[in-house]
Fold this protein.
Amino acid sequence: MSPVDAPVPLRPRRPIAGHAAVLLPHTAPGAVDWASFEALLTRTAASGLTPAVNMDTGFVQLLDPATRAQVLAVTAGVAGPGFLAGAYVADTPGDSFDAGPYVVAMDAIAAHGGVPVVFPSHGLNALDPAAWVDAHERFAARSDRFIAFELGAMFVPYGRIYPLEAYRGLLGIAACVGAKHSSLSRQAEWDRLALRDAIRPDFAVLTGNDLAIDMVCYGSDYLLGLAAFAPDLFARRDALWAQGDPAFAELNDALQRLGTFAFRDPVPAYRHDAAIWLQLRGWITTDAVPPGAPTRPDTDRAHLLELATELGVLG
């Protein structure tokens, strides 16, 4: 039986490394609410989770270069070194892969004390598996620490999940210290965990499966948009697992109900639900999102209020 065919066991009492993709709140369409963003960063770091910025949850695809740069500067000032940030390249369908803009983005993140997360792009995800691995080897020639990123097409139109053999290639790149996996497939993630355990146990498999947040029970750590809703509750959940406390299950299930609702189709509209939720909590001032971001119907607010009441985060 090969490692990828073997069942992946539960790992009770395992310390979990949690990363929350922080929402970039707006006061109105096109106007970033920097004060609320700083407050969200502070709350996230204080909870013990690592902030991740310029990710999908932070509307990175909709930001201009100056705003992305300001996000880095603000995050460095509030959270200090060690945060994660998306190294994003704004190309278009049909563009060829160009390593140069990625290197520039990764250098900017490292200069602020952050760890780059290599965000997918049209050019990068058009590469065949061997060329995709080679591109990450080229990144390693310029960066001594970065995170790869598999993002499914349900999140962005240029998303792609590569074959397991390509993932094996990532494990051979020393500077690639982990990879975020957002296929929303348990089996694909279990396969990656088994391969990681067999080849490179210190490699971080960061689940991005907001529809199966219990993947941490099998050995994944996480980088979740759902954690932006409640970094405090995710930190409590993680501590319960490490303590072997059965209360983990009930809290995890309640958080999963929130994730299942917020991450329904169309998945990218979860960011509007995050804004509604954070406004209900009193953590941001409005539920505005930038132009071009999909929104949820007004009826979501009442259901999110019910879920917030269930989780005890109001008042």
Observations:
- The chain has eleven helices and ten strands.
